[in-house]
């Protein structure tokens, strides 16, 4: 596979600027490891069951019995900030396992956890250091993360994102240029990744040409055989149409993950009732996976032109069990093809 070279790929020493989002209930050790092995970079999420065991899974797949792991772990700031939060121990567990990066998002005091990571590295003498990714939804947040916290990677997440997002975020196509304009490379700013509704190699190529250093992909990887999503959830994503993804906290209420900061979504009682019944029955029409801004992970990338996912447009989405390597390769090759095709659009004057 050819390489795509950006500040982000050089920072991590990887072949392609494709990042697996840390998706609760889906991104375990297998999913994260296989994305990294395929040339991208994978994150696992503490929301998966038996978080400690996921590191053993990752070590087995990566053939790394001990020492640093070439994957990351993602954490929600507000969960870390809860009184007597068990997630703090999970963050420390991830650091003890030598993850290459920590992803932080949605917190009132993210600087505290960034400092925890830095202190751990200093005390342990870890080299290279643990990279800190911070998800931002506005230019102001990006400025704080880059210049106050001095993070290593910015994830600019648009309003289209699945899982959870910010109600004040602009579309990713607007947010990324805004952040890049406010943080020019000459300022020593960290690489910026685009996130939110991105599912194809064309999306990756488009944001690379805008100046982003890579893209975060979530929904697309939910269908991989290594994903911890159920068959019913995968079928629901395959069958999704325009309007299938909705903004709701109903999914969080079902899973017991309420307590989100203000501005992260809206309650929909009707959806809560439907999803509760659908999940019990394994009904792909109403299972808890199409929760735009809710606890369901799949977002706007799950619907295409109101027709669902078709073999013509997204061949890897039809089968519920493509491997991560297949998905990474298809995204990468499609991005390279688009970048090469776009090069012919510029020429010298006759």
Q: What structural class do helix, strand and pairing data support?
A: alpha/beta
Q: What spatial form do the alpha-carbon principal axes imply?
A: globular
CATH architecture of the largest domain: Alpha-Beta Barrel
CATH homologous superfamily label of the largest domain: Aldolase class I
**Proportion in helices:** 25-40%
Query: Total strand count, please?
Result: 8
In short:
The chain is 39% helix and 12% strand. With 350 residues, it is an alpha/beta fold.
List the helices and strands and how they pair.
Blueprint: H1 7-12, E1 18-20, H2 29-37, E2 41-44, H3 51-62, E3 69-76, H4 77-80, H5 87-96, E4 99-105, H6 110-124, E5 131-136, H7 139-148, E6 153-157, H8 172-182, E7 192-195, H9 201-210, E8 214-217, H10 231-238, H11 250-255, H12 269-281, H13 315-318, H14 324-342
Parallel strand pairs: 1-2, 1-8, 2-3, 3-4, 4-5, 5-6, 6-7, 7-8
Helix pairs in contact: 2-3, 9-14
Structure description:
With 350 residues, the protein is an alpha/beta fold. It has 2 domains: 7-229 and 319-345, TIM Barrel (Alpha-Beta Barrel), CATH 3.20.20; 231-317, no CATH class. 39% of the residues lie in helices and 12% in strands. The chain has helices at residues 7-12, 29-37, 51-62, 77-80, 87-96, 110-124, 139-148, 172-182, 201-210, 231-238, 250-255, 269-281, 315-318, 324-342, and strands at residues 18-20, 41-44, 69-76, 99-105, 131-136, 153-157, 192-195, 214-217. Helix 7 (139-148) links the parallel strand 5 (131-136) and strand 6 (153-157). The model is unreliable at 290-320 (pLDDT under 50).
